[in-house]
Amino acid sequence: MLGPNPRTANVVKAAVNYDIIHAMQAIGESLTLVESEGVDANEFVELLRSTLFAGIVYTSYGDIIANRRYHPAGFDIALGLKDLGLAEDIAAAAGVELPTAEALRGVFEEALADPELHDADWSAIAEITRRRLARD
């Protein structure tokens, strides 16, 4: 389907994980937004999954993020950062700009440096946005 070149499979895997990272960050940001107005996180995630975002990423990670169930990690933050780096490397080699990659890298690095999050599931990057709201 995607061709016989093994490199293509690696590029596709990196691109898929890059999309997942964006989805998790989007969930974290939108939850932070609605929670700031008193909306229940689980009710919001249910709205997402029952309307436009019924896919597995929003269904499974939405639930994890809403309930802050980041342990045990299914895929940890260090691995997520590694995959983000792979996407960045592939993009750089191809001369492709990934405008959001730098911001995502900052979120991953902040989560990785946090003793409560460093060994958590990669979806715990959502906590960085939540914590930034609490600091402001």
General description of the model:
- With about 140 residues, this protein is mainly alpha-helical.
- Helices cover about 70% and strands about 0% of the residues.
- It starts with 5 loop residues before the first helix and ends with a helix.
Short overview:
The protein is an all-alpha fold.
Structural class: mainly alpha
Helical content (DSSP H or I, runs of 4+): 55-70%
Give the low-pLDDT segments: none
> Kindly state the mean pLDDT as a whole number?
94
> What is the chains' assembly state?
single chain
Most strands sheet: none
Shape: globular
Q: What series of H and E elements makes up the topology?
A: HHHHHH
- How many strands in all? 0
Please count the helical segments: 6
Query: What is the distance, rounded to the nearest whole angstrom, between the alpha carbons of the first and last residues?
Result: 48 Å
Rg on CA atoms, Å: 16 Å
**What percentage of amino acids are in beta strands?**
under 5%
